[in-house]
Design a protein that fits this description.
Layout lengths: L7 H13 L18 H16 L6 H14 L6 E3 L1 H12 L1 E4 L2 E6 L2 E7 L4 H5 L6 E5 L2 E2 L7 H8 L6 E8 L4 E8 L1 E4 L3 E8 L2 E6 L6 H14 L4 E5 L8 H11 L5 E7 L4 E5 L10 E6 L6 H11 L4 E4 L7 E7 L5 E10 L14 H14 L15 E3 L5 E3 L8 E2 L2 H5 L2 H7 L2 H14 L8 H10 L2 H12 L10 H17 L1 H9 L3 H7 L1
Parallel strand pairs: 11-12, 12-15, 15-16, 16-21
Antiparallel strand pairs: 1-18, 2-9, 3-4, 4-5, 5-6, 5-7, 7-8, 10-11, 13-14, 13-18, 17-18, 19-20
Keywords: Hydrolase, Membrane, Protease, Serine protease, Transmembrane, Transmembrane helix
GO cellular component, one term: outer membrane-bounded periplasmic space
Family: Belongs to the peptidase S41A family.
Length: 522
């Protein structure tokens, strides 16, 4: 990772841009939408034929078509996009919520496939694979010493459900090779990271995206928290770029009373489709808080807007991204697809939270970077809202449209983290890599420790803080972490906890000093 840290916010924005194009209703259109020909369409088809048949050099006309499609869509709006067939497979899998594989988190370490942690109750865990194991062969295919890209590795480990792969493992702790036969199974791709209690009666659910299984995962987490005594619910949508609109609507339905409006859409012809809550909600009376930040978009904003506009709960954090456009997906025969904006959505009070995009996509996505520069991430008064876009909730609260959901309780970035670049760094993959390598060198130092003993050990030592600074330098990142030592130590301890004890322990450490969570618990 050679990128300078000052550009991390831009990278986060670029990642968000990819995430939010997934948002909306992703329903297919029939082929009849493409049958009507006109002179412009004929001209494009003929031009491609001319190039194919007559141009002096050999040209890949497929790539020309892709560029043409991209250019056409760029004239529309920032969220109408073309997705190649290879990208479409990856996106579809991510949004499906599961895949077939062996169930491991791995890391390419010194040209070897190193196991960070087998997924709990997954095929690999049941077969006896341990954290720190190296996969040398999948059947007869050599996986070490080849600098294989991740997609090639995935293809060797994935397969048909129930199919068997024989792995040759090197177990460093025992200094021996082991052969294990693993039957591939369905591996969940969780969209709900965790559902835990913050205190005796406050539940917390973290949603990282809205995939096919998100509502089901949310319901399961909510039922668990209610059983444990939760009477207040905190839904964390920070850095959630969106996904399936229906999943966000179903979650809102759990929180709102019968016949309360959740969202409505309006298309080119002015046709309005309204979606209301039903009687089935499982959490219609307890207190609700929604955490959001500048990277919360699309379906996240639908959920937050429904809660805010119905006076159902409190929005905590910073102004959300501002995407109020609905896409539908249309597939091409080669496996690629186009996601075309077909409607705008509006919150229950009638707000469009879509920010302007008349200056083009580049300027549109740059607006996220400008929020750092104009101070709105640090002071609520710096948020620019137009009085003409003022709306009232049923209880008379003023809310604004025209560019994201403005929170009820503002939590500035500098108060939350002290230094925004440090936290962007601590949420990046480099931390996980560092922690794995530390454990790989001396995993026995943590063997048999209870979680309380682990916490005490991490609090007292500066060993890993010092080691991380050196690791960054070797990676080409010269960053002064001295002013944010507590933040760095906390995130390092959390990552150690994740790799040693699981996801919930990561959040248990992180949330203790989380400024937004503290604002809720006040």
């Amino acid at each position: 990772m050679k990128t300078e840290i000052k550009y991390l916010p831009i990278l986060i924005g670029a990642t968000l841009a990819l995430g939010i194009v997934i948002g909306g209703w992703l329903n297919g259109f029939g082929d009849d939408h493409f049958l009507v020909e006109n002179s412009s369409k004929t001209k494009i088809n003929k031009l491609i034929d001319f190039i194919d048949n007559e141009y002096v050099d050999n040209v890949n006309t497929d790539s020309i078509v892709n560029i043409t499609v991209d250019n056409i869509l760029s004239q529309l709006d920032p969220h109408s996009v073309y997705i190649s067939s290879s990208e479409q497979v990856q996106v579809a899998e991510s949004m499906k919520g599961d895949f077939v594989g062996i169930g491991v988190n791995f890391y390419m370490y010194k040209d070897s496939v190193a196991i960070i942690r087998p997924i709990e109750n997954g095929p690999s865990a049941k077969a006896g694979i341990l954290a720190g194991d190296r996969i040398l062969y999948a059947d007869k295919t050599k996986l070490f010493g080849r600098k294989l890209p991740s997609d090639s590795l995935f293809s060797k480990l994935k397969g048909e459900q129930g199919s068997v792969v024989e792995l040759t493992i090197y177990r460093k702790s025992a200094k021996k090779q082991i052969k294990l036969k693993i039957k591939r199974g369905i591996i969940p791709l969780k969209s709900v990271d965790v559902a835990v209690l913050l205190n005796d009666n406050t539940g917390y659910i973290k949603i990282n995206r809205f995939a096919e299984t998100t509502f089901e995962e949310f319901k399961k987490g909510l039922a668990k928290l209610k059983k444990e005594g939760a009477m207040t619910l905190v839904i964390d949508l920070r850095d959630n770029g969106g996904g399936y609109m229906e999943e966000a609507i179903d979650i809102a339905d759990e929180l709102l009373k019968d016949k309360q409006l959740i969202v409505f859409t309006k298309n080119k012809k002015g046709s309005i489709q309204k979606t209301y809550a039903t009687k089935k909600g499982d959490f219609e009376t307890g207190k609700v808080f929604v955490l959001q930040n500048e990277n919360s978009a699309s379906a996240s904003e639908i959920l937050a807007g429904a809660i805010q506009d119905n006076d159902r709960g409190t929005i905590v954090g910073r102004r959300s991204f501002g995407k109020g456009l609905v896409q539908r997906e249309m597939d091409f025969s080669d496996g690629s697809a186009v996601r075309l904006t077909v409607a705008r959505y509006y919150t229950p009070t009638g707000r469009s939270i879509q920010r302007p995009y008349n200056k083009g996509s580049e300027e549109y996505f740059k607006e996220s970077e400008e929020r750092f520069e104009n101070g709105e991430l640090y002071e609520k008064d710096s948020i620019k809202v137009a009085d003409s876009l003022k709306f009232k909730t049923p209880k008379g609260k003023i809310v604004y449209g025209g560019g994201g959901i403005v929170p009820d309780i503002f939590v500035p970035l500098e108060v939350e983290h002290g230094n925004e670049n440090t936290v962007y760094l601590m949420k990046s993959g480099i931390v996980g890599n560092f922690v794995f390598e530390q454990l790989d060198r001396n995993r026995i130092a943590f063997k048999g420790l209870s979680f309380e003993q682990f916490n005490s050990k991490m609090d007292k030592t500066n060993l890993y803080f010092s080691g991380f600074k050196k690791y960054l330098l070797r990676s080409g990142l010269d960053i002064d972490l001295s002013k944010n030592k507590d933040i760095v130590k906390r995130y390092l301890a959390a990552e150690f906890a994740r790799q040693l004890y699981g996801e919930s322990k990561y959040y248990e450490i992180i949330l203790k000093e989380d400024a937004m969570v503290k604002a809720v618990l006040k």
